[in-house]
Amino acid sequence: MIATRAQAIDVARTWLGTRWRHQQCSKGVGVDCIHFIAGVARELGLPGAAAFFATPEYQNYGRMPDAAMLLGACDRLMERIPLGSEGLADVLVIQFDKHPMHFAFVSEVAPRRLLHAWLGARKVVEHGIDSKWQGRLLRAYHLPGVA
After folding, report:
1. φ and ψ at 136, to 5 degrees?
2. For the domain 5-142, what is the CATH code?
3. Structural domain boundaries of the chain?
4. Which site in 76, 90, 95, 103 is 20 to 30 Å from 42, CA atoms measured?
C-alpha cells in the first residue's frame, strides 16, 4: 500500500496521549518509541512493518538498546536520507548521551515538530524542535510506502 505523508501523520496523531510502555504496541493502551513508528506503519499497511514485528531481536531489547542492532535495523527497514533533508512523516533517530535510542516522526516541517512516544512525557506527544532537541538528532529515514 502507498500512503501519503499527510495520511501517515494523521494516523500517527490518533496515537496522541497513548501511555509510554516499554516494548508495547497498543494504541490507547501503551507504546514505546520504536513500536509507535512500527504501529503506525502497520496501520498504514507499509511493507517494513511486517518484517519488524516478525523479527524477534527487534522485539526483545533493553531500555538501553544496542546501537549497532538499532541502526542496522533502521538501515534494513527504512531508506536513510541526509539529516536536515527530512520532510513530513520521515523518521528521526535521536541520541541521548551520545547513544542512539529514540525515534520520532517529523509532524510539521515549518516550523519543524516531532511526534513521538516519549518516556519523559510518559505518553505520545507532539512538540517543536528546539535547540536541545536539534542537538540530539542523529539520523533521518524515509518509510518505504509513504509518498
Report:
1. -90, -15
2. 3.90.1720.10
3. 5-142
4. 95
